[in-house]
């Protein structure tokens, strides 16, 4: 009996030591990056076998002495799409829709699909970026208003884009789409007869107690100040009608709560996440689930989604089999930095 107790204690110490070693390595990588880039604040959350770890460097902004921590608010931008696709999967579980349903009967009545598009585009096509629909021209919008490029996009804008489309130029091929996720949000609103905000709050934010995940009022004291790629101050984006594609503001603590739920097969979010992890698109360059990139090597399958606003960058990643997940948040638009950090952490620690 004593030997069994000794073995259990030894195993516990080994597990604790392993967890501490991982977190020290992650912290070292993040700290080294901050030393090289002191103008870029960063917050990182990591979950390993249901244990949470956090590290952060920098201040809320260059004029503030308040340090960034796990509760500091960032733009998660297109990581919002993972939340929206999880809601789509929850709607499947609720028998509101099927991923194979055509979108025709689920769109607001203002949309009138051209006869060439009818009974062609499936819900899963929208969620895996292969619908072939035209998209919003972000380049032109940024030229018009760099601080709030999406402010001029209205429901009328979207209706015109969809109703004027008579041909799907690349249906069945991957092309990243903001309008696709906007339509998914509107489909959710129709099947639940609630606003997108009400749906995401009732099915993700409130059940997971993500109290610092914001969809409306972003004027909070723990908000980070975003910076564009040249270092200039950038406002938080107001996504308006395109909210399901990139609106959400959150922090490392709340996103770890989401990851914890996604990794738990018994939760509503976890059951939905497993649907989003199925392969809905595949070519020589990528595999796509619903809203998530799927990457595999000899030993691991990784689910990943990045987000870049005009002033911040973020990335989320998890491994269901190994039961870990990570969120990286930067207060500057720097897609190269956030990807390099994830790659370094993965190669040095998680792989």
UniProtKB/TrEMBL annotation:
<feature type="signal peptide">
    <location>
        <begin position="1"/>
        <end position="19"/>
    </location>
</feature>
<dbReference type="InterPro" id="IPR001466">
    <property type="entry name" value="Beta-lactam-related"/>
</dbReference>
<protein>
    <submittedName>
        <fullName>Serine hydrolase</fullName>
    </submittedName>
</protein>
<dbReference type="Pfam" id="PF00144">
    <property type="entry name" value="Beta-lactamase"/>
</dbReference>
<feature type="domain" description="Beta-lactamase-related">
    <location>
        <begin position="32"/>
        <end position="338"/>
    </location>
</feature>
<dbReference type="InterPro" id="IPR012338">
    <property type="entry name" value="Beta-lactam/transpept-like"/>
</dbReference>
<keyword id="KW-0378">Hydrolase</keyword>
<dbReference type="GO" id="GO:0016787">
    <property type="term" value="F:hydrolase activity"/>
</dbReference>
<dbReference type="InterPro" id="IPR050491">
    <property type="entry name" value="AmpC-like"/>
</dbReference>
<keyword id="KW-0732">Signal</keyword>
């Amino acid at each position: 009996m004593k030997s069994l107790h000794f073995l259990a204690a030894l195993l516990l110490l080994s597990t604790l030591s392993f967890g501490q070693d991982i977190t020290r390595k992650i912290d070292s990588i993040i700290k080294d990056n901050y030393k090289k880039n002191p103008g870029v604040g960063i917050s990182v959350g990591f979950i390993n076998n249901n244990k949470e770890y956090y590290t952060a460097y920098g201040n809320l902004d260059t004029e503030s002495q308040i340090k960034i921590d796990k509760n500091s608010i960032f733009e998660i931008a297109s990581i919002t799409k993972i939340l929206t696709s999880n809601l789509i999967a929850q709607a499947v579980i609720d028998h509101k829709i099927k991923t194979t349903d055509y979108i025709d009967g689920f769109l607001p009545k203002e949309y009138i699909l051209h006869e060439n598009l009818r009974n062609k585009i499936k819900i899963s096509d929208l969620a895996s970026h292969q619908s072939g629909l035209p998209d919003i021209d972000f380049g032109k919008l940024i030229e018009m208003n760099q601080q709030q490029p999406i402010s001029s996009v209205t429901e009328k804008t979207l209706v015109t884009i969809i109703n004027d489309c008579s041909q799907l130029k690349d249906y069945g091929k991957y092309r990243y789409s903001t309008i696709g996720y906007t339509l998914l949000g509107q489909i959710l609103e129709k099947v639940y007869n609630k606003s997108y905000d009400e749906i995401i709050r009732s099915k993700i934010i409130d059940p997971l107690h993500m109290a610092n995940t914001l969809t409306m009022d972003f004027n909070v004291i723990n908000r980070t100040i975003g910076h564009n790629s040249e270092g200039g101050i950038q406002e938080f984006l107001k996504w308006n009608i395109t909210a399901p594609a990139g609106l959400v503001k959150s922090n490392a603590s709340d996103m770890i709560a989401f990851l914890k739920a996604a990794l738990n097969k018994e939760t509503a979010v976890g059951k939905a996440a497993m649907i989003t992890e199925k392969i809905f698109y595949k070519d020589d360059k990528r595999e796509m689930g619903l809203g998530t990139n799927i990457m595999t090597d000899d030993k691991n399958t990784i689910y990943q989604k990045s987000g870049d606003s005009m002033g911040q960058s973020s990335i989320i990643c998890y491994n269901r089999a190994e039961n870990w997940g990570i969120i990286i948040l930067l207060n500057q638009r720097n897609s190269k930095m956030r990807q390099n950090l994830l790659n370094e952490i993965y190669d040095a620690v998680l792989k």
